Amino acid sequence: MTQNFRTIQPVSHEIKSLKLVEPEHFLLNNGVPVYAINTGSEDIIKLDLVFDAGSIYQSQPLVAALSNKCLQEGTTNYSSKEIANRVDYFGAFLRQATSKDDARISLYCLSKHLDDLLPLLSEVAFQPIFPAGEVSTIIAKSKHEFLVNMQKVKFIARLRFNSLIFGNDHPYGTSSKAEDFDKLDSEKLIHFHKEFYLRKPYKIFVSGKLPKNIREKLDNYFGQYQIKRNGAPFGVSEINPSPQHEHFIKKDDSLQCALRIGKLLFNKHHPDFIKMQVVNTILGGYFGSRLMTNIREDKGYTYGIGSIVTSLQHSGVFTISSEVGTDVKQKALDEIFIEIEKLRTNLVPEEELMLVKNYLLGVFLRSADGPFALSELVKSVVDYNFNLDYYDRFLETVKNTTAKEIKDLAVKYLDPGSMITLVVGE
């Protein structure tokens, strides 16, 4: 078999501007906002119901996640088995997800089956009955999974790190314990659902090849539920990071140590957020980053290491995470801080900076490929009351960020003395 290899690289073009498909924005009869993206070459649809029902709203640990997880366990007219069979019959996919800020119910289906599945989706979202037997089974299974995960150093580190960054009393910092599962029951899930799914405003994002009467269809099944809009505004408690900067949690017989290093930062509303994405990518935000090159490729201390700047509704976090051998944990920590200090001391070489900029622009283009991806981009700006022109600003900011700005931002925000370090392991 003859193989032909390229001898000349393909021509590359600078991304000068971006034209995203603008969503159609309208309100249902009950005032629920809909963002509809009617595009794509395949006859498929994704429909997301997004509720302000994330873990930040719960009064006790796990209630938000379990309420969302148990939505398919039975409704007024369908048993859990009937729901699963009906979704399978139409070749569809129905899933739920809960984050710190929101909870989501997502339907994926062929366009021609939307009419058959909208009644089911409406029931799952607004008429779940949380049958006690099924709920107890889900809680028991979730507790078992939790206990298994608690044997993993990276799971322990993730839970504890949030508490260190935000404080134990802040909703973002609350961590679960095994006994928290025993405090849950069907009635508590019903109460949470009633308060945050039935009585609070929510959003609908629908994308794909949409029927012309999509607004009428959505009104029939989602515009009938009246939303309670009064009441006290939601507020969160004060963030109180740990005053102690170095923490160690002993986990006997562990072959690896989990490392977490980071600090409070800011979210997308901050003027430096986009530029910090460039800084973060250079440090640990992609496979060719400085942390990966040093600690994985050069030193061989880990299989993977990375950093991320996370935007939340009420805050933001910078985090470096890795798992390393117990015998090299201190060496790995030393090298991490060496790389941070290099970023704070020296200008990034122009070749490296251009590579990172092109990487970020390429990742963004990939994230805008297809109607479902566009829907996620729309949601990401709607969450912060932005328009799609945010992405034009993103592109321009990435392209125009200078080496000096990167150094100045690293000096301003990546002071090792301001960071919390957590090690979990032997």
Can you lay out the helices and strands and say which pair or pack?
Elements: E1 24-27, E2 33-38, E3 44-51, H1 63-69, H2 80-89, E4 93-98, E5 103-110, H3 114-126, H4 132-149, H5 153-166, H6 178-182, H7 186-198, E6 202-208, H8 214-222, E7 246-250, E8 256-264, H9 273-285, H10 290-298, E9 302-311, E10 316-325, H11 329-345, H12 350-367, H13 371-382, H14 389-400, H15 403-413, E11 420-425
Parallel strand pairs: 2-6, 7-11
Antiparallel strand pairs: 1-2, 3-5, 3-6, 4-5, 8-10, 8-11, 9-10
The fraction of residues assigned to DSSP E strands is 15-25%
**Cα distance spanning the termini:** 53 Å
The CATH superfamily name of the largest domain is Metalloenzyme, LuxS/M16 peptidase-like
- Under the CATH scheme, which class of the largest domain? Alpha Beta
Whole-number total of structural domains:
2
Spatially, the strands of the biggest sheet line up as: 1-2-6-3-5-4
Radius of gyration: 24 Å
| Helix and strand composition category | alpha+beta
The tally of helices reads 15
Q: What is the CATH topology assignment of the largest domain? A: Cytochrome Bc1 Complex, Chain A, domain 1
Helical content stands at 40-55%
| Structural shape | globular
Under the CATH scheme, the architecture of the largest domain is 2-Layer Sandwich
Secondary-structure element pattern, one letter each: EEEHHEEHHHHHEHEEHHEEHHHHHE
Strand segment count? 11
Mean pLDDT: 92
**What ranges have pLDDT less than 50 throughout 5 or more consecutive residues?**
none
Biggest pleated-sheet summary: 6 strands, mixed
